[in-house]
Structures are given as structure tokens and as C-alpha cells.
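FW: tagging you since you asked about this chain on Friday. Here's the raw sequence from the shared folder, copied in full. Didn't touch anything.
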Amino acid sequence: EVQLVESGGGLVQAGGSLRLSCAASGFTFDDYAIGWFRQAPGKEREGVSCISRIDSSTYYADSVKGRFTISSDNAKNTVYLQMNSLKPEDTAVYYCAAESQPCGSSWYFNYFGSWGQGTQVTVSS
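HL: got it, structure written out here
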């Protein structure tokens, strides 16, 4: 089983930046992809971004495209989500999750078997 730990959340002003980290253990990056999700109170979970080592593809929700960048450091078994130009509507708990297949164009419908505990991101106006 893959264990995931998110970090890097916090409170920032609108227009600011944060970098989230997802550290994986028991994780073979050649066999897994990592997705970032977020959930705000009263809202359904939303897929934010996904990265796959197998097909070297990255995917972004329209709401974050051009502002967020997903990347990986395979030596550290860590995936990052660089978030720039943050907006109040980005406020949510952010989770990373692992899957054993490439992300694909509909990656947010894939089965993610391992989830982190989440990290809070709050953007003030």
C-alpha cells in the first residue's frame, strides 16, 4: 500500500503562491500516477491535476489551468503542486492520491486507492 503525506498548505492573500508537496512511501513511481484533489465545505470533491510517470502526461482542471503546475521529483518520491495567482475560490482542503494506471483524459474518474490526509489552503481576499 502507498502512504501519502501532504504538506505546504497555509494562509495567503489573493494573488499569492503556495507549493504543496505529496511525499510517497511504499511507492513505485513507474507503476503509479498521482492526482491532486480539493474539497471545500459543502462542495463535492474536485479533481485539480494529475501526473503520470508512465506516459509523462499532465492534466489540469480548467479552473486552475495556467496558474497551477504539477511536477515530480522521482528521487524523492515526491510530487509538487505549484499554485500561483491564487484566488479565494481556491480555498479548500487539498489531497493527493495514487492510482496504478496513467492519468488519461478523464483521470478524475479513475480509481485512486491511496489518499493522504489533506492540507488546508486558505486564500484571503
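FW: The CA atoms of residues 35 and 50 lie 4 Å apart.
HL: agreed, and The two ends are 40 Å apart (CA to CA).
FW: great, closing this out.
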